[in-house]
Amino acid sequence: MARSKTSKKWMDEHVNDPYVKKAQMDGYRSRASYKLIEINEKDNLYRPGSVVVDLGSAPGGWSQIVAPAVGENGRVIASDILPMDPINGVTFIQGDFTEEAPYEAILEALSGSQADAVVSDMAPNLSGVKNTDQYAAIYLVELALDMARNVLKPGGSFCAKVFQGVGYEEYVKEVRRSFNKVIVRKPDASRSRSREVYLVGKGFKG
User: Fold this and answer.
1) Is 161 one of the catalytic residues?
2) What are the positions of the active site (predicted)?
3) 80 known member of a binding site
């Protein structure tokens, strides 16, 4: 079956993407790894010894760089509805974290401690209908914010991928209610035509 012009254009762009090639060379599972590397260099979301919750973690591009950064004294608890191959230093919980069993498993993995950071690179399965996809994306980041409010320690950090569009401004206001400082980042590895940005919350109010 012949590919559509749109899918062929995406495939050509993906294959020729310098960050895709760099990820393959560096052994990263996803080009998204470079987005978090850049954000953390600027905003210090985590450091050695940090406890980090990674939502929407598959295939593991973010957990893969967080785990060595937090080291043996830190912990990474990752969750996704999709399977993820094991990563040293990462506790992976497969399931929808908004459902009781996966949510309780995340809390159990935290072992009574609070998280220093919650990070989310979640995105919905796209339908191709712009408004539908935007509402689905905003719903996901609202759930990520709820999780952050439940597990972060005072002063903790939050980082989530958000798509600009309907509901975006209201979401930014919600994040500001819970954090002392909110920054919008557009990492170099984000495609310029993409509406995605990363919202960083610093200093969780608790």
Assistant:
1) yes
2) 161
3) yes
